[in-house]
Write a structure and sequence with these properties.
about 475 residues, alpha/beta, 5-stranded parallel β-sheet
Length: about 475
């Protein structure tokens, strides 16, 4: 379908028609009549606007989804009519929009997910794992959310000529706010790793100009974040907050927590060291080198890649901050924002091109080998975790945050379900994940069972290669089996 030059974008509205008739019509009328949005979006598709004679019960107009640039779904309580496979038009349209890489905007009516049809509740949750959902209570609220989302969408597509965050002048900053020694250190590191061959002037100002970090002689946001004396003076959301929990849930007491703030390169290093400091490690021999090698239970490059991605590609216009959370069984890295249009969590598991949200921040990180520019970062993480005998990382959109989960062992929730363990055994696995070991006596105390039943349960966990028994029979104890 050819797009008119003056109005380049088109939009498909999806929802259960009978439940949300008024909301669907209100959204279309608003977009087509708004003086601003109508300059950019000329075609808004509603199923009910098609002549009745052309409507077929089995025709969900998936081809119409594919012809539009933007897919907009309004989800309520009802799931709607189902086809022979038990799926509603709304879910089929959502799946097709995902499969064909349409930009998807999801608006959910109400906050009580318990009140929804169970299948609609699943669709709401599924959409939330992939991208940001916006909630609304009434039609005016929906219109406000639609307007904000479409403006952000147009900005991301370059239709609105606003300056990107990293290239905008940092309000109030001058060259006096740049730490010249950090610029010099950056150049030395980049040259040492072979990713910078500097032939011109080496003065900090010249370096900043070479990397497009100055605008009319003033530092950009990227310049201050990377090399500022005190970035917190200009930004309240540059903190990386690191937390450690002894268990597998985010609940008090917090074992330790540390907010890191300052220049991005230093903050990345501090967050990485915080995470590594909470992991088990093995020290090798001096056979391969003078210094004995150290191997962490999660490979260091995987943790570095996840934290660098969160810091480099986050949405700095968002008031939130990056979180690095260490649990007994995993590390989660929470990043304010969502994936760029056209990129889904599942696509991160396949080779893909680089789409940096903040290219002026990403480029210096590439030069010092903190990042690559070929789109292999996530696939390298997957390969490194497999080589270490760990589950692949999880990539998910949780509301306004993009979350990467790195597993410390192979016993994820999905794996445990497949092992058909009883409640006593699940308690024991959780206990060992937290404390590192369990004995028959501790098993009985934990579960309230008999010695004979405890022995049978523990033997079964060994047979299923969940536990390994160590020590003599009377003094034996059980630990998790590694590298499944």
């Amino acid at each position: 379908m050819r797009k008119p030059a003056a109005n380049p974008y088109s939009l498909f509205i999806s929802s259960v028609q009978k439940e949300l008739t008024a909301e669907r019509r209100a959204v279309k009328d608003f977009i087509t009549r708004d003086p601003f949005l109508s300059k950019f979006i000329s075609d808004v598709f509603l199923f009910e606007d098609i002549p009745a004679a052309d409507r077929k019960v089995d025709d969900i107009y998936l081809s119409e989804v594919e012809q539009r640039d933007i897919y907009l779904a309004i989800l309520g309580n009802e799931y709607g009519w189902k086809n022979k496979d038990g799926k509603s038009p709304t879910e089929l349209e959502f799946e097709h929009a995902t499969r064909t890489h349409r930009e998807r905007l999801i608006f959910v009516k109400g906050h009580d997910d318990q009140a929804r049809d169970p299948e609609m509740a699943k669709l709401v949750a599924r959409a939330g794992r992939q991208l940001t959902r916006r909630r609304f209570s009434d039609t005016p609220g929906l219109i406000r959310e639609v307007y904000a989302s479409l403006v952000e969408c147009l900005e991301n597509r370059g239709a609105l000529k606003t300056s990107p965050f990293d290239g905008s002048v940092c309000d109030g900053a001058t060259l006096r706010d740049i730490d010249q020694s950090s610029v010099t250190a950056f150049v030395e590191t980049a040259e040492a790793v072979g990713r910078l061959k500097l032939k011109g002037a080496r003065a900090p100002k010249s370096i900043l100009q070479n990397f497009n970090l100055l605008r009319d002689g003033q530092p950009t946001n990227a310049a201050v974040l990377l090399f500022g004396k005190n970035p917190r003076q200009f930004f309240n959301n540059v903190q990386v907050h690191c937390l450690h929990f002894h268990g597998t849930e985010k609940r008090k007491p917090i074992a330790s927590q540390q907010p890191y703030e300052g220049r991005l390169i230093e903050v990345i290093d501090e967050a990485v060291e915080f995470a590594l400091g909470k992991l088990d490690r093995r020290v090798g021999t001096h056979a391969a080198s003078i210094q004995a090698p150290v191997t962490f239970e999660i490979p260091r490059p995987v943790i570095v890649e996840a934290i660098v991605n969160a810091v480099a590609h986050r949405n700095y216009r968002h008031n939130g901050f990056v979180q690095v959370i260490v649990f007994a069984d995993r590390i989660e890295i929470w990043n304010p924002g969502e994936l760029p249009p056209g990129l889904t969590p599942d696509m991160l598991r396949q080779p893909h091109g680089p789409i940096p949200r903040n290219p002026l921040i990403a480029e210096p990180l590439f030069r010092i080998k903190y990042a690559e520019k070929v789109g292999t970062g996530t696939t390298d993480m997957i390969a490194d975790c497999r080589a270490a005998g760990l589950p692949e990382p999880d990539f998910a959109q949780r509301g306004p945050h993009f979350v990467v989960t790195l597993w410390r062992d192979w016993l994820t929730d999905d794996v445990l379900v497949g092992l058909n363990l009883n409640e006593r055994q699940l308690q024991a696995v959780a206990h060992v994940k937290k404390t590192g070991r369990i004995t028959n006596s501790e098993y009985r105390q934990l579960t309230g069972t008999t010695r004979k039943t405890a022995a049978r349960d523990l033997d079964n966990l060994v047979e299923k290669k969940v536990f390994v028994r160590l020590g003599e029979k009377r003094g034996s104890h059980y630990v998790l089996k590694r590298n499944k």
